[in-house]
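Thread title: Can someone regenerate the structure for this chain?

I was given the following input by a collaborator and told the matching structure tokens would be attached. They weren't. Posting the sequence so someone can regenerate them.
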Amino acid sequence: MLTFVAKRLIQLVPTLFFVSVLIFSLQQLLPGDPALTIAGEDRDPAVIEQIRRQYHLDQPLPVQYLHWVGGVLHGDLGESMRIKQSVSALVAEKLPVTIQLALMAMAFSITIGLTAGVVAAVFKDTVWDYLANVFALWGRSTPSFWLGIMLIFFFSVQLGWLPASGYVRPSENFWGSIAATIMPAFVLGNVGAAVLMRHTRSAMLDALHSDYVRTARAKGLLERTVVLKHAMRNALTPVITLGALELGELLSGAVLTEQIFSIPGFGKLIVDSVFNRDYAVVQGVVLVTATVYIALNLIADILYVLVNPRLRT
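Best answer:
Regenerated them for you:
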């Protein structure tokens, strides 16, 4: 197991290098000049020249890349050109918000999607199966912005149970934080639950028709034991992959949902940075997001081995 993890960690090095080059290269394709944006309306040539020197914009692209990578290796993601704040500090401020929202959304996805998928597979071609498929179709086809607005109208405006927007840190008010994020978390988790349900149903149907499940039933085991211990455990492999990708997508920021509910997370941060040509922030956020994706894929590979003993060889 340790050898497997060590090999995967070694493979991450060239992957991260390629990702960093790609992020820096694509960043240069954004239209506009950040120095002109920062200089403001006056655009004094002396000020523009000073900005170019300060942020190494007057140097060749390979030199700019080396400056950036050198800072990243030392834990310095650069400085925001617009608000003069460390990118690392911005990431540290916004990332916990997005992590909380993503984990709550994943809780909804796993609880609803996994349960519905197992029930649909066990009761195939029954009313429960049809209801689960209708739910999956509804979850995939319902626009997130529309669902968010409807939830705000019903639970905030009509009933007054939940705040319509805003964010409260758990350290300040735990239950207030849950109340502020439960609706956006459900909106995000709704789509993931629909996808998770379809994959779980398909994987469970394959598992329930396998030889080892028939053998378990022939031994006289309870149906609950057969479904949960034998079939479901072996059906989790594709579900783990989907869950890791969905969590990575949530951690990268949900732009529309964060805008509707005024959640100050990664999505809002990166959109504001792109509009303001704040290169350092865009590069830092995208690099952190890519690193999280890669780390989640590594965790998914480790979970494969833990769930399926056959992979340990």
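The longest helix spans residues 87-122.
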